[in-house]
Design a protein that fits this description.
mainly alpha
Amino acid sequence: MSRSPFVPRDVVRVWAAFAGLGAGLVHAAAAGPRLAESVAAGVLLVVLMAAQLGWALLVLARGLVPLPRLSVAVSLGLVLLWAGTRATGLAPVGLADVVAAGLHLSVAWLVMADLRATADDARAAVGAAAAPEARSAGAGRRFALLFAGALLASAVTTPALAASEAGQHAVPHGEHLTGLTGHH
């Protein structure tokens, strides 16, 4: 009998989508200021943002990673592009872009883990066509894993958004209700 993985593959895919959403949001925050500096860099960020958000939403909606090998290649290519532009001095290193690069690496690693699990399942199926199904993760464990992934993605993405130019102009917490009485 095959054993259930510690993290179910559908949860791994959702984690990859969370990382893609985070990277897309970081690129969204960076796109405006970059458009003012360089139209090409700004347009690249807008395209990346749209592609990442669309990819992540597709993964969440369908439960499958579209074109997984291409997803890994693009994510790793973006990290190499980022490293090259920073190493050559074409762009400064900032918290937001370091986080975006880390999120791209996360997408690549999680999608590669899903590809590996798919290949392992295919090899196991050849030798054990009549093997009983592995027990699936319980709802509580699945919820905890999904919550942990969402918490981690937001904990990494939020400081990057706050460090962006858009984040610098955001209204500080507590000032939203200025002028209203009876509130904090």
